[in-house]
Design brief:
heterodimer; A: alpha+beta; 2 domains; six-stranded antiparallel β-sheet; 3 helices; 6 strands; B: mainly alpha; 21 helices; 0% strand
Chain lengths: 172, 388
């Protein structure tokens, strides 16, 4: 019985010590390879923030400013949904700081500035703009408001010549 | 032509005993549970068939080779695949290729829950030693180590440790009972764990939500993890190296991303073949003469005690983490530390959903779940190193 107690104490100690050792090694390695968290000034995103299904931590050291512009738009959208605004701020990705300035994302095309370089961004080749929280209205309700005059399409019509159909974005 | 030879066709009936019939009924029951109730069919069907074949008349399938004659085919499976540890190691290799350690690496604190649940191993060790003091059971320390490892709730680890213990002096009958008890209780985790979880946690605790957030672990970390774990185990507890080494080798194939063919072979073809061999061989170890004994009953009782105490220990550490984090950790995830991947994690998820439909704990429970698999292998290594 004494043997059993001794084995149990030693056994549990070894299991805990080894797993804790592995845990600390892995935490250290992960911190080393993550190369700094993505953060936004004034906003703590050090810890687990879902970003519309896009894992922010996958974004490592973008090679071009245009990638940073894309990240900035996503951040602006996320912060907008949570009552914040990115606006003209510094963001840090993979330990590198970028000065970004995102225009009004509800009024496409969106103007984004990264370290002084400006970009126009739109969604999709057809240039479907962002819509401001469209909420469908019941037909009866619409009639009450004035024979359906308040109805608006979920996808507003293109804005003609104002819209750039040549691609995603274009340097100004 | 000798007419007497025709009677040979019926001689099988002469050799049948009630015990053999009993074992065949048990085999049929396992096959029934696998097919009709879908309880671990990939294991219970081969095990059931193995029992039926091994307990046939004259037990020809498991007969050891006599002078100038070949033995039964299952005897070779037992000797060369099971007792040598080849099958459990290959199974562990396949499991490594199937296991995603990301939930664990994303929340490293869950390593602790996997460690706590190994208390079941040592609680069962003490329980078996205590029972061994009674002459009726006659358990020695090697038997106790064999029974204890059931608490790890990890099939390959259990077979590996129990086989080694048999080679150094555990009773032959212990091995079969331990292996069957382990796999039976792993299949019964959804029945065993919920009452214990309910007993040790309050409704308020069970309703704690742990928001799931995408927190990907870098690919380099995932590649380094199996290598580091293997090295740490090699240095500190070399007896666990075969198990951990094969487990992590399979995982390395998964994470490296450049060995797709080997990975697919490990996950599918190899795993399926080895599962068939494992099931039928384990089943064949359940011989009527050894199975219907008080010792077997005691092992089954100790097995459930091991599972229960492992679950309780995980839950208690979960409660402590809940207290320290001011209610941010749902203590139920501690119950998943008993391994039995992924069954224990599913149980936690089901219980969370029962309390609150919008509570999703599965990914949080997978962390301790896979940590439990590593913890069980380490606990097995400790037993192999210490019990001589």
């Amino acid at each position: 019985m004494v043997d059993g107690l001794l084995i149990s104490v030693v056994g549990m100690t070894v299991v805990f010590v080894l797993l804790i050792l592995i845990m600390f090694i892995m935490v250290g390695i992960e911190r080393l390879f993550r190369g700094g968290d993505v953060s936004v000034e004034g906003l703590d995103v050090q810890d687990e923030i879902p970003l519309g299904g896009i894992p922010l931590w996958d974004v490592e050291r973008p090679e071009e400013d245009i990638e940073v512009a894309a990240v900035a738009i996503v951040l602006e959208k996320y912060l907008g949904e949570h009552g914040g605004k990115l606006g003209n701020r510094a963001i840090v990705i993979g330990g590198i700081q970028y000065q970004v300035n995102v225009g009004d994302i509800t009024s496409p095309p969106v103007f984004v500035e990264v370290n002084g370089e400006g970009y126009w961004a739109a969604v999709g080749e057809e240039g479907l703009p962002f819509t401001r929280g469209f909420k469908p209205i019941r037909i009866a309700e619409a009639k009450e408001r004035g024979n359906g005059r308040d109805w608006r399409s979920a996808q507003p019509l293109s804005r003609g010549g104002y819209w750039d159909r040549s691609g995603w974005s274009k340097k100004t | 032509m000798d007419a007497g030879n025709f009677w040979e066709l019926l001689s099988g009936f002469e050799d049948l005993s009630f015990q053999m019939v009993g074992m065949i009924v048990i085999g049929l029951l396992l096959v029934y549970l696998g097919i009709a109730r879908r309880m671990e069919p990939l294991l219970l069907i081969p095990i059931g068939v193995g029992i039926i074949i091994a307990n046939g008349p004259f037990q020809v399938a498991v007969a050891s080779p006599a002078e100038g004659e070949m033995g039964g085919f299952l005897w070779y499976f037992q000797e060369y695949l099971l007792l040598t540890g080849i099958i459990p190691l290959l199974i562990f290799f396949g499991l490594g290729a199937l296991t995603d350690f990301e939930p664990l690496l994303a929340r490293p604190r869950t390593f602790l829950l996997g460690a706590a649940a190994q208390f079941g191993v040592f609680a069962a060790l003490l329980g078996t030693i205590a029972l061994g003091l009674l002459e009726t059971f006659d358990f020695n320390l090697k038997d106790a180590a064999s029974v204890a490892i059931i608490g790890g709730a990890e099939g390959p680890t259990t077979i590996f440790v129990a086989a080694k213990m048999q080679q150094i002096g555990a009773h032959e009958a212990t091995f079969a009972a331990v292996v069957v008890a382990c796999y039976s209780y792993m299949a019964m985790v959804p029945i065993i764990q919920p009452p214990i979880i309910k007993l040790l946690t309050t409704k308020k605790e069970r309703m704690i939500k742990m928001p799931y957030a995408e927190h990907p672990v870098s690919r380099r970390t995932k590649i380094i993890f199996p290598i580091i774990t293997t090295l740490v185990c090699a240095l500190f507890i070399y007896e666990a190296l075969p198990l951990i080494g094969m487990f992590m080798f399979g995982n390395l194939l998964r994470e490296c991303g450049v060995a797709e063919r080997l990975l697919k072979a490990a996950q599918n073809e190899l795993m399926n073949i080895v599962t068939i061999l494992l099931g039928i061989t384990v089943g064949s170890t359940m011989m009527a003469s050894q199975f219907f004994t008080l010792r077997t009953v005691a092992i089954f009782v100790l097995g459930i005690f091991a599972f229960a105490s492992a679950t309780a220990a995980g839950l208690l550490l979960g409660k402590l983490m809940c207290f320290l984090s001011k209610g941010k950790v749902n203590p139920m995830i501690g119950a998943a530390g008993v391994s039995a991947v992924p069954m224990a994690a599913r149980v936690v998820q089901n219980m969370a959903t029962k309390e609150d439909q919008s509570n999703f704990l599965l990914m949080h429970a997978m962390g301790p779940n896979v940590a439990g698999a590593i913890g069980a292998a380490i606990a097995g290594g400790v037993l192999l190193a210490v019990v001589q």
